[in-house]
Amino acid sequence: MFTARTALSSTLRAARTPLVNRSFHASAPIMVKVGDSIPDIELMEDSPGNKVSIPKLL
């Protein structure tokens, strides 16, 4: 009786575990291709006085 109960509980536990590893994000990933342009947006490094433009760095 005890072994039947543990076998049943392990089967139910296996049925509850997802087969697919889901990532944290629900949105679709944005794919970047070679040759795509980088948007010219000014970012701030440590403080608002330190502005950086990514296309100018690359």
Describe this structure in words.
This protein has 58 residues and is of the alpha+beta class. The protein is built from 2 helices and 2 strands; from the N terminus they run αββα. The protein has helices at 2-16, 54-57; strands at residues 42-44, 51-53. A two-stranded antiparallel sheet has the order 1-2. A hairpin with a 6-residue loop joins strand 1 and strand 2. The longest helix has 15 residues, at 2-16. It is elongated, with a radius of gyration of 25 Å. The N and C termini lie far apart (69 Å).
Helix content: 25-40%
Oligomer: single chain
Note poorly predicted spans. none
The helix/strand series, from N terminus to C terminus, equals: HEEH
Number of strands: 2
Distance separating the two termini:
69 Å
Radius of gyration, taken over Cα atoms and rounded to an integer in Å: 25 Å
Summed over residues and divided by their number, the pLDDT gives a mean of 74
